[in-house]
Design goal:
elongated, six-stranded mixed β-sheet, 2 domains, Immunoglobulin-like, single chain
């Protein structure tokens, strides 16, 4: 809790004194609880896929935090994208991580990450859930609102002329 108010005090330095309105603005528009504050979007996501073939989503993550993101190839530290694919009944079909590479993403910049999805067990509706996390061995801190995306997996298209 001290870090929260230290950040607010640092933001106030050099400006006018504290007011309830200024605090509300800082808490809702400026404050970043960690490196995970982001805007997440999919680049050209499919509305339909062939259920029997693996494919990938491309996630674009914009760094909206007040510090650079440090992605790490190591498994115990750094920023990464955690993602889950579940079916219409909520059954988890696949869980993965993306961004396991040594990369620095400055504030205001973005990174594109590939989210591979294996062949799905059946046709139907599926949901992708994605969020960024910051791992420091002993804890995980999540960032902004996670991204969710609905799509449909269908039978492969028949081959023409057969």
């Amino acid at each position: 809790m001290d870090e929260f108010f230290d950040q607010y005090e640092a933001w106030l330095s050099g400006s006018e004194a504290h007011t309830p309105e200024r605090f509300r603005h800082w808490a809702t528009e400026v404050y970043s609880p960690g490196e995970g504050r982001s805007k997440l979007e999919l680049v050209n996501p499919p509305k339909r896929t062939d259920y029997s073939e693996p494919f990938k989503f491309t996630l674009r993550a914009y760094n909206r935090s007040n510090q650079a993101w440090r992605f790490s190839a190591g498994s115990l530290a750094g920023v990464r994208a955690d993602y889950i694919v579940h079916d219409a009944d909520g059954k988890i079909i696949y869980a993965g991580e993306a961004g396991l590479r040594n990369t620095l993403v400055p504030t205001g910049e973005f990174i594109d990450l590939e989210l591979p999805v294996p062949a799905l067990p059946h046709t139907g509706k599926y949901v992708l859930w994605v969020d960024l996390s910051q791992r420091n061995v002993s804890f995980t801190q999540y960032g902004s609102e996670p991204l969710t995306y609905d799509w449909e997996a269908r039978d492969p298209a028949p081959v023409r002329g057969r």
